[in-house]
Amino acid sequence: MEGGEGALALETGAEMLDYLIRRRVQMDQDELDWSLVAARFAETDEYDAQGFVSPFACIKARCHMSGGAVSARLCAGEAAGRIGQERDRGHLR
C-alpha cells in the first residue's frame, strides 16, 4: 500500500494516519540517504566535469532544487556523515 493507488484505497481516518506516519518515516530515511550521497558528491570534482562552478550549482540545476533546499540537504549530509564517523570511532554510544 506504499504506492499511489494503495494510498487512495485508504478509507478510515486511522488507516490514513497510519499510512502518513509510515510514509513520513520512509521519506525521512530517503532524504537522509540522499543527503549523505549529496555530501559525498560535493567532495568530488564531477561538478566541474559537468560544466558547473560548484557542487552546489550542479545539484541545484541538475536536480531542479532551490538553493535553500540544496543547502539544507548538503548540511544534513555533512552532519550525518560526521556523526557516523564519530560513532565508528567509538566516540558515540
Topology:
Layout (H helix, E strand, L loop, with lengths): L3 H5 L4 H30 L3 H4 L5 H8 L4 H22 L5
What does this structure look like?
This protein is an all-alpha fold. It has one domain. Helices cover 74% and strands 0% of the residues. It contains five helices and no strands. It is flat, with a radius of gyration of 18 Å. The model has no long low-confidence stretch (mean pLDDT 91).
Q: Could you tell me how far the N terminus lies from the C terminus, measured between alpha carbons in angstroms? A: 35 Å
What string gives the helices and strands in order?
HHHHH
Q: What does the average pLDDT come to?
A: 91
**Count of individual beta strands:** 0
Oligomer: single chain
How would you characterize the largest beta sheet?
A: none
Indicate how many domains the architecture comprises: 1
Q: What is the percentage of strand-forming residues? A: under 5%
Uncertain runs are none
What proportion of the residues is helical, as a percent range?
over 70%
Which tags fit this structure?
single chain, 74% helix, mainly alpha, 93 residues
Write a brief structural summary.
This protein has 93 residues and is mainly α. It has helices at residues 4-8, 13-42, 46-49, 55-62, 67-88.
